[in-house]
Amino acid sequence: MMEAVDIDSETRMAVDGSTEPPEGYRDPDISVAIRELKSPNHRNASIAAEFLFERSHTEHERSSWNKNQIRNEGGIPILCQLLKSPSWHVRYHACSALSELAFRNEKNCKAIVENSWALQSLVEMLSTTYTTMQEDAALVINNCAAFCEEACLVMIKHPGLVQALKALVTDGLFGAKNVSVGAINCLTRCDSAKKLLNDLKIVEEALIPAIQEAGYGEKYNARVCRASMAIANLTGSCYEPLTTISHYHTVAAMVEILGYSLEGKSWAGINFAPYSVLYPLRSLAYNPKHRKELIECGLIERIAETMNTWKLEDHRSRQVLLIAIDIANVLFKTPDYKGIFFSSGIFAATKLVASGRRDEGQGLYQNANFSDQNYPVAVWMGLHQRLGAKSQFQLLDEYVVGIILEYSFKGYKCN
């Protein structure tokens, strides 16, 4: 590790967990580092870029505030220019800083992809012979695509970018393959970009070869699973060539990953956001041939857990609930599996969504169409956010509600 800029280790400001910094918040060391990025001395510029990476890293207690400061003080355009530096160290640390600045920061993602230097430089770095540089460049694309849907279309349309990712997936070294598959997976979640990706034959020429390639180990399994997620996003299906990965059950792995994600745990060293896993699972749920396996792998229970543990965190939080409800609606129509719904706790979870007390948003509950004319209307009226707002039903705890729902949906009478 290169020497970092000397900083004052004393905590200047308490962190209260808020997204926005207190009025007037500013780290003077960051301002100094941004000025140092312009230094003609490559070593100084490299150290400054590395320092901004460290201040932006998720493990730093004020990372979200620091990322905003770096953007507001013009650090991102300078880092993008440094991607063309003649110094390998400067390019490497500038790229690392950009990947971290893009992580969970939509405005930073936009600032990166809208910069005239950035995308072409990233394409060139993907095509370099330095594996570490390839991985970092792919990670910038991965993070921009993961946290800013607008950025996806810009990147996909940039000449040579998708082709460079495809080349790494098929011909790159192990680490570069893994990150490139991850970047493509993030790009496939952009609805407006799917036709472009299909026209570029991303499934046939990159994703299917990725899962057909023999391998072993946790990181290999993660690559296969992310490639399968990307295929599901684009096609609504899941390829599993028996000759290469019959030992690895991708659908079951996706459901397992969702469980890890809901618990805030990493899987194969990757921290999957619930949205990124639910999105391909919904595509699979739309395909009748996958529904039985999804249910038997425990997806209904995971959907109930998604609803129960949900909290408003960012602009995609409500999309998580919408997708979860959509999956539940589709799977509820699967014959012979109603009993799993009764035992999963999903009805009580739906009641929690209906309450709106976690700021779920108006209209979300109305998307839960588990009821139809064959089921008790009174139960659903009692759970309805508006019609049942003053109902005694709303006063019951989840355990009692679960019993009532089970008896009601089985056609029994509650005396």
UniProtKB/TrEMBL annotation:
ARM repeats lie at residues 74-108. PROSITE patterns: ARM_REPEAT. Residues 1-29 are annotated as: Disordered. Gene3D superfamilies: Leucine-rich Repeat Variant. It holds the Pfam family Arm. InterPro entries: ARM-like, ARM-type_fold, Armadillo. PANTHER family: U BOX DOMAIN-CONTAINING, U-BOX DOMAIN-CONTAINING PROTEIN 4. This is Uncharacterized protein. It comes from Guillardia theta (strain CCMP2712) (Cryptophyte).
